[in-house]
Amino acid sequence: MTKSETRSGHTRCIRPRARGSATIVVLWSIAIASVIVAATQMVTWRTTVLGRAALGRVQARWAARAGMERVIATLASHTETPDAEDPMSVVRDLEFDWEGSLETGGWDIRHVAEGEEFRGPLDLHSRLNINSITKLQLLELPEMNIDTTDAILDWRDEDDEVQGIGAERSFYEGRDLGYVPRNGAFKSITELELVAGAWPEYIRGEDWNLNNRLDGNEDDGESSAPDDDFDGRMDSGWAGYLTARSIDSPLGRSGYPKINLADTSVEELMETTGVDEAQADALMTYGATPNALMGSLLAIDLAELVGAPAASSTSSSRRTTGRSSGRSNNTEQDAVASLSPEQLRAVFAECTTTSFEGPEVVSGKVNLNTAGPEVLRIIFNGDSAVAESIMAYRQSRAEGITSIVDLLELRRIDPDVLATVADQLDVTGWVYSISSRGKSTTGQEVEIHAVLDRSTLPVKIIEYRED
Ligand SMILES: [Ca+2]
Ligand SMILES: [Ca+2]
Ligand SMILES: [Ca+2]
Ligand SMILES: [Ca+2]
């Protein structure tokens, strides 16, 4: 008993202590456990949030990508089955693609051109190609001066001879710039920033990231770079009027490759364009002369171009008469009838004097249906009356301008002037710049910027970046 008493007494003495320390251990364990739980919860919560953000970004990215794929499909269908009578149809269809949604997000495609916002992708043929723009046209750009104009021409010409007051290799070497002029075609519009006197402010204007959209930092005055006038309108630099990406297509309005006037047959020309034998022969003779330009056909009579006698007015309007009189009279050079407006349209739609066989891409032309008034003014060497009359004419017809030959109907346009710039003009676009903003249902945003080329099929992505 005593033993047990003592034992129990002993135990009694010890137990409370043991119970106390056990309680402390338990309390500590609980405290530590709750810290661990809290920490784990925090980590889990963070992981979830991060996971959700990552998932949101993926969803936004795919929404943006879906918008781009939609545009690619529209572009491909217009290359495959072009509508020669309605060059504005591609513009309307692309406008229609400007927004769309998936289960997990949606896209928004728009662009600013000459200060105005438009839905859908930007036709890069609404701008002049930096590789074919002339000196007079360059001088029409805002803040442009003659030394920079010459330096731009020096950059792209193949020699090292300084033009006027331009800059060639020796200038760049003398300044230790670490680079010399390309002496070849500009590959991108940002390459222009390497040219002496071509400052980024002149080139980018307010569109600092060159996405053809007015972003927050581009319309907040001095609060962030770049400096802008905070007026809600995107004031473009040279990049708003120029591009290095537009490409001329070897395809005619029919969707088949264009006929090179220097390399065809009388039969092929007659069948494709509806000209008579003597006219076909004259077109081929002209096409074989060095530096033949399509534009000359707009200002100079075909007979005069090849030094042939002109057909009388009665035979000139009758294709069959022209052909038979030509045949009966084979000792002398055949009389050549003037091309009718209809024949001229067909010749411009399906023929070319440009060779598409070399390794270099052919610089793109300006699309008369999408160029803004300022680009049109620059092309016509600063003549704003011509630009306005082209804009008015285009807006009066739903299908737009179907052929450069249409411009001969405009009183304001001098055919001789038109002939000099005609080879820089077209009625359709082949290369498009797209800024597709994807937004997930959770609010994450991803912007895809891409340049798409439909001049041949399949449509090619020639530039791509994500922001
Ligand atoms: Ca040069
Ligand atoms: Ca921008
Ligand atoms: Ca700013
Ligand atoms: Ca502004």
Can you offer a commentary on this structure?
The protein is α/β, with parallel strands linked by helices and 467 residues long. It has two domains: 1-141 and 241-252 and 356-467, no CATH class; 259-348, no CATH class. 41% of the residues lie in helices and 12% in strands. The protein has helices spanning 2-80, 89-96, 135-138, 146-156, 169-174, 200-204, 266-273, 277-287, 296-299, 302-306, 313-316, 319-328, 341-350, 373-379, 384-395, 415-421, and strands at 99-102, 105-113, 116-119, 122-123, 128-129, 242-243, 259-260, 351-352, 366-367, 425-426, 431-440, 445-453, 460-466. The strands form four sheets. Strands 1, 2, 3, 4, 11, 12 and 13 form a seven-stranded antiparallel β-sheet that branches. The longest helix is centred in the N-terminal third of the chain and has 79 residues, at 2-80. It is elongated and about 125 Å long. Mean pLDDT is 90; it is low at 1-14 and 314-331. The structure holds calcium ion (4 copies).
Average pLDDT, rounded to a whole number, is 90
Bound molecules: calcium ion
Kindly, what is the distance between the CA atoms of the first and last residues, rounded to a whole number of angstroms? 87 Å
Please count the beta strands (DSSP E, at least 2 residues each).
13
Question: How is this fold's topology laid out?
Answer:
Layout: H1 2-80, H2 89-96, E1 99-102, E2 105-113, E3 116-119, E4 122-123, E5 128-129, H3 135-138, H4 146-156, H5 169-174, H6 200-204, E6 242-243, E7 259-260, H7 266-273, H8 277-287, H9 296-299, H10 302-306, H11 313-316, H12 319-328, H13 341-350, E8 351-352, E9 366-367, H14 373-379, H15 384-395, H16 415-421, E10 425-426, E11 431-440, E12 445-453, E13 460-466
Parallel strand pairs: 5-6, 7-8, 9-10
Antiparallel strand pairs: 1-2, 2-3, 2-11, 4-11, 11-12, 12-13
Helix pairs in contact: 7-8, 14-15
